[in-house]
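Re: that backbone. Tokens:
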């Protein structure tokens, strides 16, 4: 029945600024009205709704102001430089400074490499790449560099 996640939504305070930001990430505009815009994550498969509202001021919590974009494991290594070229700074996450990212999340039995950054309204965005699935192995959160070094 369920084929995937089609849409997610974020609050934004300035629609034009937000559209410009998400276009810098390579997302294509699908629809724009006065108070909402949709940008394609993967055309015809998933999009992100941007809602202009004063609700941007609510405190951040991952359950309401967070989106993770899937990327390939090979691309996550280049993602920090790619973001920097676009004027987007990586932010601290889980006590890991930008210099130590990407990090590996120990969501056993899964492991994912991640980089975190904010949109103009402080919504937390993430690039995430699966490294392994369904393998039970306990480990602490670490940098991706440390993850690869411990495997060799």
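Recovered sequence:
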């Amino acid at each position: 029945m369920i084929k995937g996640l089609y849409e997610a939504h974020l609050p934004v305070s300035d629609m034009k600024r937000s559209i410009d930001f998400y276009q810098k990430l390579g997302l294509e505009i699908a629809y724009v009205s006065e108070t909402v815009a949709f940008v394609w994550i993967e055309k015809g498969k998933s999009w992100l709704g941007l809602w202009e509202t004063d609700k941007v001021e609510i405190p951040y919590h991952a359950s309401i102001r967070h989106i993770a974009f899937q990327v390939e494991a090979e691309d996550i290594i280049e993602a920090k430089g790619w973001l920097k070229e676009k004027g987007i700074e990586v932010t601290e996450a889980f006590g890991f400074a930008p210099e130590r990212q990407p990090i590996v999340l120990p969501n056993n039995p899964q492991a994912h490499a991640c980089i975190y950054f904010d949109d103009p309204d402080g919504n937390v965005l993430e690039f995430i790449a699966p490294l392994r699935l369904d393998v039970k192995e306990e480990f602490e959160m670490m940098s991706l560099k440390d993850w690869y070094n411990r495997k060799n």
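The CA atoms of residues 20 and 128 lie 22 Å apart. Helices lie at 15-24, 73-85, 144-151.
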